[in-house]
User: Which sequence fits this backbone?
């Protein structure tokens, strides 16, 4: 008979729900596989011992107690921005403006430190910083939200553009408030009086940020999963028509959620200026507003899982930096490794959602015998 | 007929979706010169089976042979090459193109529209279709679009045709026309398979019926040797009574009064024009009409979801006091103390959230209750459990996303939630669309219980036979206007059908 007619080699079918441990076994397997591939690439391309490279990646994060604290601080800040975008994402509203919203918050905090520092007592300055920076972040997100709710503008483009406005605004004020004159930089603000500097807890400079973000993380989890607002966000995200059908005011939910999103971004900016950096630069947020998108997505918008995904991304980027310095490799090599690992992690989602049926051996003969 | 070689032989066809066995070792023969009706409840695997024949799914196990030759169908293109064409429930046409352009779309070879139109006219003449090859799709009625889909399949040389619930969107007159065409095709020696739920259509049209239940092949037989009762029993697996109750309304009082209602869509198209009627408590007011004649807008206007141009919609309390509903949204209507339930046409896109589980969907109506900022999850969960038990919803648990449920079970969840709030007005749009016999009767029963409880029911339906059996009065819409209101008892299907296509229903004959 017709020998050319054969079953396809494999076909793809959608899986039913996978048990959570099988799903995480697949993800873990993907990470392991990624490390093996990275090792092969490293030894083939650079001739370095892959084990030494892995060691360097690990040491980049845990090499010393200072490095470990920096790691935790970076995780906290990335997590904070990721938590900020998550309510909007759950509403299927793609807030890509976290960078600008955090910068707006940082600008407000720095303004308080510089302008009010000499006039008000320390406590009052810090209070002003908290209020204005959270407000500034909220406003920066509220503008695109208002336009989306009123005229259904595209929030992705709008928030993205707001990033550039925020960056330019900060650049401008960096010149206005430059110190020393002519440097074009703000430098450390109030280096002597330390007005507006947040206190360090137990002698650890970064502990305050970590605790605040941990608190936000738990609060966000509860808000999204157990509050009426969280439920409204989920309904609006899944189907606006259903939301209107049960009488949810969709416009109000959009604006409210974006304000919250921006407010938490503003908080991130506040922590960066008040607690960690004590200065303001246009690159203060270091692209976390965009990395946060990945953190949030990888964790399926679950604040608790986001601790893990933000750890993973910070760990990888610090490891990449360490390789670059230790082995004298171009820092791009670290990025290549990060890229490979992310490729495997994101790719593993396919195998979680779908299964592949291979043609059974022997089927070929059966078909051709008829 | 028995000694003929089967056009299609399906043997031991098995298809799994995860743990769900959609088809379990199904055998099916399809012959040329015969119309086969494929019967089965929702989720019994009819569409899955036909999708494997038309190359959309690939079977996990089993063999298919065409004219005695074993074949492997890997894609819709393979199916077309074998002369198999399927007309799906949802049309796959490009709106801005003409009929002819849609028909030749995707075909290989040089584009010669003139020759194509000639061929299309040939096909139309041969079988009695009425298609203008130059008409744009967006200018067409649903029935015309369906005709284009059928011609498209024939144009590509299909001689095995599969139609998935083709009459769901047609008026009785259009259905008759379609059946005439299908009979012509059968007489021309083509094999026709029709998937349907409507028993009288099976009896009127088909030569043979094949019945599936829970993914298994139950049996097939010539249509003339069986009857609706026997077929239904085979589909369901036990005896079912096929009568819809229609108790006399008890103490009907005006509940909703609509006066001179005019509604325009966002694009400024007139959807309802000067519509006036009264809906009484304890009564089912059936609303008939070709789909898209303003039924959706009418219900949504009452529910506070559709902006209104002019007119009034008044809710009348038992004591005779009146409340205007126009200008209110669903929330403010509820806050006025008007208990209005709405089962919309689009169940998963509007009535329910597809990705949420049963309890969370129950919560849609109740989540605002209480002063706490947190949601109460226990009450909706209990409601979900009650609905599952009382309405016999087939679901693994109340924590299953509703999108995984079959159509009938989705509808039970929606109706269950809507009647749980003890409404005084119940609006339903196509409450049994796509539902199998068993589920449909469950829904009719629920609606009748609401009527007995004194609820004013507005029932938008598409199956005229059901409307004539269920409704106390029937309001017929035609192009957004009221074509007439007739009593349900004693109304003639032909008369109502005419009123659907022409205001007043009078013909010149």
Assistant:
């Amino acid at each position: 008979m017709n020998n050319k007619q054969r079953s396809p080699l494999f076909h793809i079918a959608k899986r039913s729900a996978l048990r959570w441990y099988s799903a995480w076994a697949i993800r873990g397997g993907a990470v392991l596989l990624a490390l093996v591939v990275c090792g092969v690439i490293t030894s083939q391309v650079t001739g370095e011992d892959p084990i030494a490279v892995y060691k360097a990646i690990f040491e980049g994060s845990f090499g010393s107690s200072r490095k470990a604290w920096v790691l935790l601080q970076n995780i906290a800040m990335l997590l904070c921005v990721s938590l900020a975008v998550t309510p909007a994402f759950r509403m299927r509203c793609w807030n890509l403006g976290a960078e600008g919203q955090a910068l707006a918050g940082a600008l407000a905090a720095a303004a308080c430190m510089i302008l009010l520092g000499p006039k008000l007592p320390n406590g009052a300055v810090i209070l002003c910083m908290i209020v204005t920076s959270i407000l500034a972040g909220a406003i920066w997100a509220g503008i695109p939200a208002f336009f989306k709710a009123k005229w259904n503008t595209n929030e992705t483009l709008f928030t993205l553009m707001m990033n550039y406005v925020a960056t330019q605004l900060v650049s401008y004020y960096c010149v206005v408030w430059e110190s020393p004159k002519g440097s074009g930089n703000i430098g450390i603000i109030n280096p002597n009086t330390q007005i507006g500097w947040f206190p360090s807890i137990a002698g650890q400079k970064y502990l305050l940020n970590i605790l605040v973000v941990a608190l936000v993380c738990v609060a966000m989890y509860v808000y999204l999963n157990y509050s009426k607002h969280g439920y409204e966000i989920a309904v609006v995200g899944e189907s606006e028509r259903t939301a209107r059908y049960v009488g949810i005011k969709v416009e109000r939910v959009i604006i409210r959620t974006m304000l919250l999103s921006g407010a938490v971004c503003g908080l991130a900016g506040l922590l960066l200026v008040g607690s960690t950096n004590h200065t303001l630069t246009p690159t203060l947020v270091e692209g976390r507003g965009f990395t946060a998108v990945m953190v949030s997505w990888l964790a399926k918008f679950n604040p608790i899982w986001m601790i893990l995904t933000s750890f993973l991304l910070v760990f990888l980027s610090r490891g990449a930096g360490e390789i670059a310095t230790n082995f004298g490799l171009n820092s791009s090599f670290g990025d290549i490794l990060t890229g490979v690992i992310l490729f495997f992690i994101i790719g593993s989602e396919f195998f979680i959602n779908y299964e592949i049926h291979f043609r059974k051996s022997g089927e070929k003969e059966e078909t051709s015998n008829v | 007929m028995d000694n003929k070689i089967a056009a299609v032989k399906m043997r031991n066809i098995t298809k799994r979706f995860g743990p769900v066995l959609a088809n379990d070792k199904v055998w099916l023969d399809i012959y040329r010169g015969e119309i086969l009706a494929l019967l089965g409840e929702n989720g019994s695997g009819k569409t899955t089976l036909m999708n494997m024949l038309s190359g959309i799914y690939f079977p996990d196990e089993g063999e298919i042979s065409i004219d005695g030759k074993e074949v492997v169908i890997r894609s819709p293109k393979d199916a077309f090459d074998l002369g198999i064409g399927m007309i799906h429930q949802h049309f796959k046409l490009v709106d801005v193109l003409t009929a002819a352009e849609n028909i030749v779309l995707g075909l290989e070879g040089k584009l010669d529209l003139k020759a194509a139109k000639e061929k299309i006219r040939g096909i139309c003449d041969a079988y009695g279709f009425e298609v203008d090859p130059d008409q744009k799709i967006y200018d067409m009625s649903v029935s015309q679009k369906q005709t284009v889909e059928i011609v498209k399949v024939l144009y590509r040389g299909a001689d095995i045709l599969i139609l998935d619930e083709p009459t769901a969107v047609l008026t009785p007159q259009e259905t008759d026309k379609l059946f005439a065409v299908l009979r012509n095709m059968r007489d021309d020696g083509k094999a026709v398979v029709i998937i349907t739920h409507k028993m009288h259509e099976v009896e009127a049209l088909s030569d043979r019926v094949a019945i599936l239940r829970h993914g298994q092949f139950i049996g097939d037989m010539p249509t003339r040797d069986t009857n609706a009762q026997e077929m239904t029993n085979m589909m369901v697996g036990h005896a079912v009574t096929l009568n819809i109750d229609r108790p006399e309304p008890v103490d009907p009082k005006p509940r909703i009064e609509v006066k001179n209602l005019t509604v325009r869509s966002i694009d400024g198209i007139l959807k309802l024009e000067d519509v006036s009627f009264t809906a009484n408590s304890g009564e089912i007011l059936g609303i008939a009409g070709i789909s898209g004649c303003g039924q959706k807008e009418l219900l949504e206007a009452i529910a506070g979801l559709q902006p209104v141009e002019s007119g009034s919609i008044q809710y009348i309390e038992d004591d005779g006091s009146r409340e205007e509903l126009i200008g209110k949204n669903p929330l403010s209507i509820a806050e006025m103390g008007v208990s209005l339930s709405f089962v919309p046409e689009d169940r998963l896109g509007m009535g329910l959230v597809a990705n949420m589980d049963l309890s969370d969907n129950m919560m849609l109506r109740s989540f605002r209750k209480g002063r706490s900022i947190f949601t109460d999850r226990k009450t909706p969960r209990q409601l979900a459990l009650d609905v599952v038990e009382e309405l016999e919803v087939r679901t693994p648990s109340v924590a299953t996303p509703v999108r995984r449920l079959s159509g009938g079970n989705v509808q039970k969840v929606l109706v269950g939630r809507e009647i749980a709030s003890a409404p005084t007005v119940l609006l339903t749009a196509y409450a049994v669309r796509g539902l199998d016999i068993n589920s449909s009767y469950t829904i009719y029963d629920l609606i009748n219980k609401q009527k007995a409880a004194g609820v004013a029911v507005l029932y938008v339906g598409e199956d005229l036979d059901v409307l004539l059996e269920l409704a106390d009065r029937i309001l017929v819409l035609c192009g957004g206007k009221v074509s007439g209101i007739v009593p349900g008892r004693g109304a003639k299907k032909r008369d109502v059908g005419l009123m659907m296509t022409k205001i007043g229903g009078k013909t010149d004959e």
Notes: The first strand of chain B starts at residue 8 and ends at 17.
